[in-house]
């Protein structure tokens, strides 16, 4: 029998029986958050007919479970007849409304929570939280309803009691946002923790006294500094005092759960207080810093509220090592630095789940919403190369940020923490004047992080008793708020009064605690009871201290070893089919290792990594295209064409080799490079490499170069061996893909703070990388790496050049040109050398020598002098570069060039004219310029 048109449509419909479960699951997701389902399905659900009087439909799963329970009660109870007892469940319609009410509080209760200590927040009416919105009223308060999944420990409850319970749980001192999470297990877990105690667990006397001591310490520290150093900047914590007992509790709980290290990152607000009252910095040292006393041997130094610190902290699980990261004024940039440091520490401990090291980042309310590196760091949090098992993120929310008096000027969202929803992190808003609520959410946050290995946010809603700093006058921009603050008791007093009412403590006991803390500060000794002297928690940096860039080292590798390693890194499983171009490239590499072809850049670079791994040294490399290389040259990671399985030959040298990680990073420069800086500062024994896709992309990470990499040692004594590969060279690709801005890095050079190299041959890159790993020195290495040179027929090397293990800081003339015939010497760096060499050979010039400077900083004066000595008679010296005159090395290194040439010689410039743009946009113009600068350098006038 032929099917009807309607039946045929139904059988083929996406709503047919076979898809019913899938559709129901989508619909339940739609009910919780319509934006979480695909747009086409949202349209379908939006178009469904509405039930009269029902604005928000309830989740079907909870209703289905409820009906199962009701079925066991018997017919009378199920029908809600008048013959049921007083605790029976009423009719179906109101039961559904009650479940909707519970769901509404889970979703939106935070909008009516008591979060602002000052009581200034004007909360908008949320109708979802009103009984009338659900066709309920106080007339129903005595009626008993089933609670569904509401985890208060009962199956049924009178509506009046339930309504009070919901308000206590979701509208008290804690406002919880977690229903945006799509994972049901995580939501149910949070519900259980919150609802089972109505967001207010029982706290014993000992815990209360600990909290009070923390508040006394926080308050006492600020008052002491304010009296002793009136007007001095300290970025006080006053108003957010709960941070101190919060952090101490968090560290204690972390140690009890098995953590061995905690790494903290925070900006200025409250930093000095945390240093003294949490990490145990000696107060007398801080007072000396305020008084202007310092150790001249510490280098340039930095202001007090940028300082880092390390100590040990006793917990029920043993000592926990604490490290507060150094942080400049770019407030949120420290967050990825902390993550990188944590990742290194986890790998050193062979911990794969994040349990051994806890990252804690402390943010400002305006900064977390306003600075893009926060988004970048959130985005990295669950990726393979950058995950750390979750981070506890705390916002010191003083409600004004810097001096802005209206949140409309600081963000476009309701909460400053809304950015965290991009990774579905739960957010716990908490009133900082309720330190027990703070302790409660802190415990939940840590347990959530440890269980689910994901980020979690605590929004500590407080206030700022003074201005942005102590010299600032806040009444100028927040008059009403500061009138209220002046009358508002400090957190210590608020909590002490509460404990007095509860009978937990007597007034004289409180006075004694305050006096004891003040006396401890007067004596200048450590005021943290849990402080312990540091033991072997951190890596040993002593082998790397006190060495300069020219320290002696042996980087040689026997040729036979290179051949063996070369065979290993050109081998892969038989069934691992390579893409055709990659397969040809690996065939060429086999020929190279067999001596049939000279080594190109990619082969030499991979051999460098192989020898470093063979020595037992670990390697970490990240970048947006690091596995294959942006310019298709590296191919350290081989992707099988039939199964997409990735195979890395460098991981399969032998059983005792070092470990290697190569990850293609998220599309970020700032956060990723900051992460690698943090990693390198925590793990000196690993060769850590960050590679920009194009050198000019480093612009996005400029704050990391300026504030950390170039000056971290001078400011904070922090050594770092990070290697940075920045593709650089003028091939006519326009202004955005030519220059790595060499001039910026040279401008930052001083005190041998880092190395800037421009290698031009495969042997040079091989020996440069080996030198960076082998030398007992850890200083950043900035590399202007090539693009066209990766396949240039002249940019090749022999395996013998690799084996000798020498990186040449300067390379003299390679052609057979007698020095006595030389009338002009051209100095240069990078790709332009080969343009000059080819044109000189073409013109058959034998009176011009070319000297390559492969390391521009620290300038290799000794090697330069040895090469220049043979040209002492030459008066005509030229510096040739591809970059415009105001860029490249000309302005920043000219003094080194002049110092190197004979005293009566003259140095001139050959290159592009000064330009506001790094390069021209037209290939034809580029070629004209390139030809002209080469001719200029080779023409003796």
TrEMBL record:
EC number(s) on file: 1.2.4.2
Cofactor: thiamine diphosphate
Domain of life where this protein originates: Bacteria
Any Pfam family: OxoGdeHyase_C
UniProt keyword annotations, A-Z: Oxidoreductase, Thiamine pyrophosphate
UniProt function note: E1 component of the 2-oxoglutarate dehydrogenase (OGDH) complex which catalyzes the decarboxylation of 2-oxoglutarate, the first step in the conversion of 2-oxoglutarate to succinyl-CoA and CO(2).
Family annotation (NCBIfam families): 2oxo_dh_E1, PRK09404.1, PRK12270.1
Family: Belongs to the alpha-ketoglutarate dehydrogenase family.
Protein name according to UniProt: oxoglutarate dehydrogenase (succinyl-transferring)
Originating species: Glaciecola petra
Gene field: sucA
């Amino acid at each position: 029998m032929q099917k009807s048109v309607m039946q045929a449509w139904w059988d083929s419909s996406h709503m047919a029986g076979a898809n019913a479960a899938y559709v129901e699951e989508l619909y339940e997701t739609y009910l919780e958050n319509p934006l979480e389902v695909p747009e086409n399905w949202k349209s379908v659900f939006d178009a469904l007919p509405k039930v009269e009087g029902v604005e928000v439909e309830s989740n079907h799963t909870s209703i289905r479970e409820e009906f199962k329970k009701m079925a066991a009660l018997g017919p009378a109870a199920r029908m809600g007849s008048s013959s049921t007892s007083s605790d029976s469940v009423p009719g179906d319609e109101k039961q559904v409304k009650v479940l909707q009410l519970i769901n509404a509080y889970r979703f939106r209760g935070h909008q009516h929570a008591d979060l602002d200590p000052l009581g200034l927040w004007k909360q908008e009416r949320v109708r979802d939280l009103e009984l009338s919105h659900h066709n309920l009223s106080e007339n129903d308060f005595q009626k008993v309803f089933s609670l569904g999944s509401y985890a208060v420990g009962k199956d049924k409850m009178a509506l009046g009691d339930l309504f009070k319970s919901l308000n206590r749980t979701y509208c008290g001192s804690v406002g919880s946002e977690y229903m945006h999470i799509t994972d049901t297990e995580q939501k149910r877990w949070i519900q259980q923790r919150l609802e089972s105690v109505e967001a207010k667990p029982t706290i014993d006397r000992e815990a209360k006294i600990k909290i009070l001591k923390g508040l006394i310490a926080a308050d006492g520290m600020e008052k002491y500094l304010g009296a002793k150093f009136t007007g001095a900047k300290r970025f006080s914590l006053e108003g957010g005092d709960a941070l101190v007992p919060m952090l101490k509790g968090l560290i204690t709980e972390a140690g009890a759960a098995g953590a061995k290290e905690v790494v903290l990152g925070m900006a200025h607000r409250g930093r000095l207080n945390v240093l003294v009252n949490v990490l145990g910095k000696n107060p007398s040292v801080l007072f000396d810093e305020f008084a202007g006393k310092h150790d001249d041997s510490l280098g340039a130094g930095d202001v007090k509220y940028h300082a880092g610190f390390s100590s040990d902290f006793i917990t029920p699980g043993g000592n926990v090592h604490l490290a507060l990261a150094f942080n400049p004024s770019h407030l949120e940039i420290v967050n990825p630095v902390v993550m990188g440091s944590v990742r290194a520490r986890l790998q050193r401990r062979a911990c794969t789940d994040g349990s051994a090291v806890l990252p804690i980042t402390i943010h400002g309310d305006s900064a977390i919403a306003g600075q893009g590196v926060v988004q970048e760091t959130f985005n990295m949090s669950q990726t393979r190369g950058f995950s750390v098992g979750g981070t506890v993120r705390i916002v010191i929310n003083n409600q004004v940020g810097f001096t802005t008096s209206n949140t409309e000027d600081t963000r476009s969202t309701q909460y400053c923490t809304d950015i965290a929803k991009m990774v579905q992190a739960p957010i716990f808003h908490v009133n900082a004047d309720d330190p027990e609520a703070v302790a409660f959410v802190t415990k939940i946050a840590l347990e959530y992080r440890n269980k689910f290995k994901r980020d979690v946010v605590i929004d500590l809603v407080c206030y700022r008793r003074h201005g942005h700093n102590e010299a600032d006058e806040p009444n100028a921009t927040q008059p009403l708020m500061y009138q209220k603050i002046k009358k508002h008791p400090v957190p210590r007093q608020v909590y002490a009064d509460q404990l007095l009412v509860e009978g937990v403590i007597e007034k004289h006991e409180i006075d004694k605690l305050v006096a004891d803390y003040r006396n401890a500060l007067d004596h200048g000794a450590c005021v943290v009871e849990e402080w312990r002297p540091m033991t072997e928690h951190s890596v040993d940096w002593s082998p790397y201290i006190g060495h300069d860039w020219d320290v002696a080292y042996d980087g040689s590798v026997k040729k036979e070893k290179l051949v063996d390693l070369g065979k290993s890194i050109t081998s892969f499983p038989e069934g691992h089919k390579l893409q055709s171009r990659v397969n040809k490239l690996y065939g060429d590499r086999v020929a190279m290792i067999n001596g049939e072809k000279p080594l190109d850049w990619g082969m030499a670079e991979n051999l460098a990594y192989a020898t470093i791994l063979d020595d037992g040294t670990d390697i970490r490399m990240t970048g947006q295209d690091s596995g294959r290389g942006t310019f298709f040259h590296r191919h350290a990671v081989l992707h099988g064409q039939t199964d997409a399985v990735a195979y890395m030959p460098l991981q399969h040298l032998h059983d005792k080799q070092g470990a290697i990680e190569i990850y293609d990073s998220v599309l970020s420069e700032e956060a990723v490079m900051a992460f690698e800086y943090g990693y390198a500062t925590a793990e000196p024994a690993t060769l850590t490499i960050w590679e920009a896709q194009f050198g000019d992309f480093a612009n996005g990470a400029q704050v990391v170069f300026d504030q950390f990499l170039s000056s971290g040692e001078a400011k904070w004594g922090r050594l770092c061996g990070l290697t940075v590969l920045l593709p650089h060279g003028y091939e006519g690709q326009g202004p955005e893909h030519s220059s790595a801005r060499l001039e910026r890095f040279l401008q930052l050079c001083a005190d041998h703070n880092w190395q800037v190299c421009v290698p031009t041959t495969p042997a040079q890159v091989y020996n440069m990388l080996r030198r960076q790993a082998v030398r007992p020195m850890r200083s950043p290495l900035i590399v202007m790496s090539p693009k066209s040179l990766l396949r240039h027929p002249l940019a090749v090397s022999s395996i013998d050049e690799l084996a000798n293990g020498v990186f040449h800081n300067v390379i003299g003339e390679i052609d057979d040109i007698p020095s006595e015939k030389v009338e002009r010497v051209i100095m240069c760096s990078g790709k332009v050398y080969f343009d000059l060499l080819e044109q000189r050979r073409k013109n058959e010039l034998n009176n011009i020598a070319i000297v390559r400077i492969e390391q521009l900083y620290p300038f290799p004066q000794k090697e330069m002098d040895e090469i220049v000595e043979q040209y002492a008679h030459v008066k005509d010296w030229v510096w040739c570069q591809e970059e415009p005159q105001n860029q490249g090395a000309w302005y920043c290194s000219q003094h080194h060039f002049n110092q190197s040439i004979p005293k009566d010689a003259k140095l001139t410039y050959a290159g592009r004219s000064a330009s506001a743009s790094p390069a021209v946009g037209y290939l034809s113009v580029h070629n004209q310029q390139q030809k002209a600068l080469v001719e200029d350098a080779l023409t003796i006038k």
